Amino acid sequence: MCERAQRNGLLGDYKAVFKEWEELKIIEKIDCENETSHFLPHRPVVKTDSITTKIRPVFDASARETGKNSLNDLLYKGPNLIEQIPDIIDRFRSYPIGISADIEKAFLQLGIAPEHRDFLRFFYPTENEEIIYRHSRVVFGVSSSPFLLAAALSHLLEHVPAEDSEIADKLKLSFYVDNCVSGVSNATQQEKFILKAREILSHGCFNLRNWESNVECKYISKSTGTTKLLGILWDLDKDVLKCRVCVEDLKIDSNITKRFILAAVQRIFDPLGILCSATLPPKILLQNTWKLKLSWDSTLPDDIVKPFLKWWGEVVKLSDIEIPRHLEINDTTRKCTFLLMPAKRHMQLAYFLEQTLPKV
């Protein structure tokens, strides 16, 4: 790992992250041997489009020796307390003013009991000597970490003064891991929500930062351009939502396989079902490969390859599709739901009908 990081010019920056963590007491250097311990492999991950951390260590708690359990295999994950992405986005769309933020180093604000830290050891990235550290904070990548963060936030939001309970109740439904996505009805509520949310989270040593909105105010970091929101894109200027279609780095070759079709389908993240009619054809083709009992890397027949290539040639156009973020719903709005069940698929459609006064 060190040699690869050195070749890519990342080793210096990678070490700097660990140095910062040591100063912040996120990790601690240890000298003593302990037979009851576990070491986590790690590697640097670079995110050039990140507005905060460009390089960060990723620890693999699922790594295992042949025939043995990994750390994640042995840990109790805890119940899933995380809100569903479609539910969060639906609530977000109900407000005229959308707001998003994230918690700075969220997992690293939670401490690990000293008697458990030896199971979170790792080797410092150096070629010359063996230097051992261990984590003193919750580690991203450990299977129990999402529960621990969600439980900590839930506990914090349950124990607020009575005057803050309305904002706290709203925050309970606004978090997806460390991302906060919510909204308000007007500019006055916008400032109040941001100030109160910051204050409430600060009592748990959580820094709610990177505030973004379609309406500018003095506490907002960004109110123009396009930003990421729970895996989709939010155009702040036009206040519209778009799906991310990440197919640029998926190179097509002459041999189309079941593995390639699956990879192509997975490049389109569409939690709201905006593109379901366009993403359904390759899924049906993939289903047909299973019916034919083809292996992952077998050459596919023409009646599968040709329609897939036609779809692939047009898939980039999906990134141009956008929908209004704000979905106005009031007492005069009716929801009508239809269930369609053709031979090869079934789908549920929901329409919101707005009753208006007749023209005079």
TrEMBL record:
Q: Tell me which domain of life the UniProt entry assigns to the organism this sequence originates from.
A: Eukaryota
Tell me the InterPro entries matching this sequence: DNA/RNA_pol_sf (IPR043502), Retrotrans_Pao (IPR008042), Rev_trsase/Diguanyl_cyclase (IPR043128), RT_dom (IPR000477)
Which GO terms of type biological process are on file?
DNA biosynthetic process
Q: Name one Pfam family in it.
A: Peptidase_A17
Q: Which part of the chain is the Reverse transcriptase domain?
A: 86-195
So where does this one cross the membrane? none
This protein is called what?
A: Reverse transcriptase domain-containing protein
Species source reads Araneus ventricosus
